[in-house]
Amino acid sequence: MQNIYICIETKVSKVENRAAKNEYLKTTPMISLKKINKTYQTGQSSLHVLKDVDLEIGEGELVSIMGSSGSGKSTLLNVLGILDQYDSGEYHLNNKLIKNLSDTVSAQYRNQFLGFVFQSFNLLSFKNAQENVALPLYYKKVKRKERNAIALDYLEMVGLREWAHHMPNQLSGGQKQRVAIARALITQPKVVLADEPTGALDTKTSYEVMKLFKKVNAQGITVVIVTHEHDISNMCDRAIRLKDGVIHHGEDESAFST
Ligand SMILES: Nc1ncnc2c1ncn2[C@@H]1O[C@H](COP(=O)(O)OP(=O)(O)O)[C@@H](O)[C@H]1O
Ligand SMILES: [Mg+2]
Question: Which residues have CB under 6 Å of ligand 1?
Fold first, then answer.
């Protein structure tokens, strides 16, 4: 039923592009999950949130993770982002086994491979756009002058060079998310993980942000976007569907309406 998604696309070039990407993905998985399980324990009760999740995402893919609220999307993204541990199975990121890592090594891998974008932007309100974008380089001990210069280049890339000295409360939602995307990119990650990045934006602004993700992806960066919006998902190469913590391959889209 995957074909349905390809058939509804009218642009032939996009289909060819997808086919080429799918071919590529077979040889070079950037993300590989095998039988991942995760259970939350809260007091007496336990909640099995990810159930035998098998998943491969190729280098350079742009994929969405779809599913209704509570289906485990953020949990899955947090595992992919090495922000949370899983209980069993194996997760390889860029051929490295991500399992039982110390906090230091987890942070090192996150800084080396990953960029994050969130629904609520997570900008520091007392720093201007340029300082927010530069922040990850502060943690990498890059000197202020150099990191601010690099931040300006990334603001330019997201079309906000002129807004460098504006504070977050002087920016629109779409502008804030573009600042957050620039911040995610400044460490040159291999993978960008975005949790409902358009969830707080109107439709037009959402599409602009998606256009930016596509531009990022065109540079070869793997992009994973959690969303429950079908139009956002349709702008990706492939949709991964989660229902009650189980990945469903080739299911009818209507089964996942939210
Ligand atoms: N830290 C946590 N402790 C306990 N339960 C949690 C925790 N985080 C999420 N959950 C529960 O796990 C389920 C999946 O949550 P989540 O991954 O956030 O879903 P989604 O992002 O798809 O809405 C939900 O029932 C949620 O309440
Ligand atoms: Mg969520």
Answer: 40, 42, 47, 49, 67, 69-75
Q: Whose CA is nearest to atom 2 of ligand 1?
A: 40
CATH number of the domain where residue 63 is located: 3.40.50.300
CA angle (148 as vertex; 144, 150 as ends), nearest 5: 120
Q: Evaluate whether residue 258 is within a structural domain.
A: no
Is residue 256 assigned to a domain?
Answer: no
Structure tokens at 30: 């950037």
Contact between 200 and 227 (Cβ < 8 Å): no
The ligand minimizing its distance to the Cα of 241 is 1
- Ligand closest to Cα of 199 equals 2
Mean pLDDT per 10-residue segment, the chain (258 residues): 35 55 67 97 94 96 95 97 97 96 94 95 97 95 97 96 98 97 96 96 95 96 96 96 89 48
